[in-house]
Amino acid sequence: MPKVSEAHLQARRQQILDAAAACFARDGFHRTSMQDIVRECGISAGLVYRYFSSKDEMITEIVREWHAHRASALTSGDGAGAYLELLREIGTPEAPDARLALQVWAESVRSEELRALARDGIEQACEAVRGQVPPGMDPDALIRVFIAVYQGLLVQTAWDEQLDNEAFVNAVAEIVRRLMGR
């Protein structure tokens, strides 16, 4: 029997996570069943359960992927430019679904695991850009302000299809430029 490659296993796992994310964004965590996810990804229930034991495990993994993506983006270039790119990304089809992000935040009030992941994500962001904060400013406070801007854009994107993402990002870019003295 041929052995399945690691790349194939990872692709299948991602297929399941993508299907779960689509279901969660459309119907919410509590209204989505494992059977809904199975239908969405078009594979057997047994195969889904081979990768994930529960919806909660899928949600947690989706959040971990989001945090890894943001941390990678923030550490791969200058913090201000990388941050603005993350804001621009919110308005693209490749971005995490804003409705799903809102559900994760709401669920983090109930789930200690998601709350810990959210806190870890904030700490990762703080660590990534702490050294780039202008002198005389509290780095953690300023970073949290920019996290709130990011979260606010996600919220507005979730409920306002008419939101001009580029205008929003341009306004934030001007604030960052003035703050950084550029």
Brief overview:
75% of the residues lie in helices and 0% in strands. The protein is mainly alpha-helical. It folds into two domains: 1-53, Arc Repressor Mutant, subunit A (Orthogonal Bundle); 55-180, Tetracycline Repressor, domain 2 (Orthogonal Bundle).
Strand composition percent: under 5%
Mean pLDDT: 88
Low-pLDDT segments: none
Provide the CATH top-level class of the largest domain. Answer: Mainly Alpha
Major sheet characteristics: none
CATH level-two architecture of the largest domain: Orthogonal Bundle
Radius of gyration: 18 Å
CATH superfamily of the largest domain: Tetracycline Repressor, domain 2
List the total number of helices: 9
Shape: elongated
Describe the structure.
The chain is 75% helix and 0% strand. The protein has 182 residues and is mostly helical. The protein folds into two domains: 1-53, Homeodomain-like (Arc Repressor Mutant, subunit A); 55-180, Tetracycline Repressor, domain 2 (Orthogonal Bundle), CATH 1.10.357.10. Helix 1 (6-27) crosses helix 6 (98-108), helix 4 (55-75) runs parallel beside helix 7 and helix 6 (98-108) crosses helix 7. The model has no long low-confidence stretch (mean pLDDT 88).
Strand and helix map with partners:
Elements: H1 6-27, H2 34-41, H3 45-51, H4 55-75, H5 79-90, H6 98-108, H7 112-129, H8 139-159, H9 165-180
Helix pairs in contact: 1-2, 1-6, 4-5, 4-7, 5-9, 6-7, 6-8, 7-8
